[in-house]
Amino acid sequence: MTPPAQWLPSDYESAARLVATLFARVDLSEHREWHPVILAFKALIERDPVVRMNMTAMIDQIPARYKEHHPKTVDQLLAQLNAVLTIAPAYLPPEGSKEAVALVGTPFSAVLIWTMGTPAGFAAYRDEKINAMFKQLLAVWTRFLDSEASTYVIHPGANGWQSPAAQAQLHMDEYQHTPEALHWGFSSWNQFFTRELKPGVRPIQAPEDPSAIVAACDSTVYRISRQVKRQEKFWIKAQPYSLADMLDHHHVDEFVGGDVFQAFLNPFNYHRWHSPVTGTIRQAFVKEGLYFSQSPSEGEDWTDQNHSEAYIAHVQTRAILFIEADNKDIGLICVMPIGMVEISSCIIHDWIKPDARVEKGQELGYFQFGGSTHCVLFRKGVVREFTGQENSPYRVGQVIAFANVSEAR
Q1: Is the CB of residue 332 less than 8 Å from the CB of residue 277?
Q2: What is the spatial distance between Cα 126 and Cα 104, in angstroms, rounded to a whole number?
């Protein structure tokens, strides 16, 4: 089974530790001043009976074994969301975790994970009104993460991103930063987490081979699927890829019968995306979608966002970039960075427009708030072989596949 991307723990004790750490400085018995976006959410819940029903029921339906560390009422959930608007993702060292891995405290998920795997939660997080409200919440949080106030988690203490334990996983020697400066010279959380590489640390493999297709992201393979269909029941247990839904009905005919390469980014990966080929941008846009939905086929389990990656490729907020490779044997490909939970800010660089030229390995854009998952789609018959398999790790610039070479070449 594919391991989780380590944004959330997969055991209850670690999840409880995450919640306790995030809210240690928040006294929920005394509400702070309510942010206007929380007041708007509260007003929606009060006036819309369906929204109120689903929001209330998803809390009531949390399994009894998880009753200790979750919101007990809608008002308490709103109070917690009000608090996380000024909480940056925390580094949690592995001590005390069954998994013996470090975690990143994604604050919205710490509040909502208990409800996401309930019957009412499945409905609530697909509700257009509720999803639109979370979009507004995330916009407010983004402004905080773009501010200097969010740097409070970048420090050398035990729970800081400059701690020895965190640095052992961050490999900051690969990134542009100022080692001796306060917060490494970063002016916000988002600037830290979208940090740029030093020149030359991600060389392109097989640069002279036009059939070589390289990794778009530092990531670990989640799934490789071949002969993908136009339309499938992507919400069922197997979560098969459904091209029309993934691609938002753009260029679907080009990819029927082709292949999908999907890989996830963990929180310690590099968070920018690069072109797998040399070619020309044909189309690039962000498809707005859901934020906290997960596949109902995985059952009523709060950890299943980790195992819903194929499902969310169809419904979640994502960037969709079509690139026409110079190598005619490759032709049109699609690079699709996909948001997971609050990690849903897909930023395409302004210069990525139709007819813009990109070189293999050139940067296309980035995720804010950290990593997520992404797909690269190929036309039928293009890929001769993939170089890895499920759980294979890649770095930007490493070869993920070789294209078939036509006789004409």
Answers
A1: no
A2: 25
Residue type, 98: K
Query: Is the pTM of the predicted complex or chain greater than 0.70?
Result: yes
Q: Where are the domains of the chain?
A: 12-147, 153-187, 212-403
Q: Name the maximum alpha-carbon separation found in the chain.
A: 73
Structure tokens, 81: 């969301």
Looking at residue 35, its pLDDT comes to: 94
Predicted confidence (pLDDT) per residue in 250-260, tens digit: 999 999 999 99
- Number of other CB atoms surrounding residue 368 within 10 Å: 21
**Tokens (6 digits) for 156:** 């050398």
φ/ψ of residue 348, rounded to 5? -90, 130
Between the CA of residue 206 and those of 60, 203, 335, 398, 400, what are the distances in Å?
Answer: 55, 10, 20, 9, 11
Q: How far apart are CA 401 and CA 129, in angstroms?
A: 41
Residue range 159-174: mean pLDDT, rounded = 90
Kindly provide the residue ranges of all beta strands, DSSP E only, lying in 59-150, ordered along the sequence.
Answer: 90-92, 103-105
Q: How far apart (Å, rounded) are the C-alpha atoms in residues 374 and 367?
A: 11
How high is the pLDDT of residue 90? 77
Residues in the chain, overall count: 409
Q: Tokens standing for 53?
A: 């029903």
* CA atoms of 110 and 17, how far apart (whole Å): 10
Looking at the chain, the number of H-run helices and the number of E-run strands are: 12, 16
Q: H/E element holding 243?
A: helix 243-246
For residue 75, the SS3 value is helix
